Amino acid sequence: MDKIRVIITNKQKEVKIPTGLRMLVRRCCNAVLKLEEFKGSAEISVTFVDNQEIKTLNKQYREKDSVTDVLSFVMGENGSYDIDPETGAQILGDIVISMEKAQEQADRFDHSLQREVGYLTAHSVLHLLGYDHEDNMERVRMREKEELVMEQLGLPASSSYIAPEE
Predict the structure, then answer these.
(1) Is 78 helix (H, G, I), strand (E, B) or coil?
(2) What pTM value is reported for the model?
(3) Has residue 164 been placed in a domain?
(4) Can you name the residues that pair with 4 across neighbouring β-strands?
């Protein structure tokens, strides 16, 4: 694996970005690409937005008029990606994370915002590499890879993704 460039932009003011979160996002991207034995240089864009912005994007690109936690916009097809003419890196795509939704889910599942954002990042990078979770087996395979990356980064699941009884 060559050089991995992760461009991170914060376009929201609802949730304070904790110290170290940007580095964690970069480490997640690198860990997934290493796990998947990705060849060559790569570029990934990650943008933090609020619920309103992700709802707008979800409606515009997926025709779903609802807030979601993360969106992945793949810049390639069948493992072939656009190339950045300046760097020669493969442009894998864009990840958009709702920080409001991430905070809400971290609270609901009783883990840190860092774990939630890390998980959403790993999930999205797998999407950028062609994984999908429409099929049940693919969903299980994705979850296993996401959790493996989280463990490698020292953020193992403290519980399942089932909200505690209220």
Answers:
(1) coil
(2) 0.91
(3) no
(4) 42
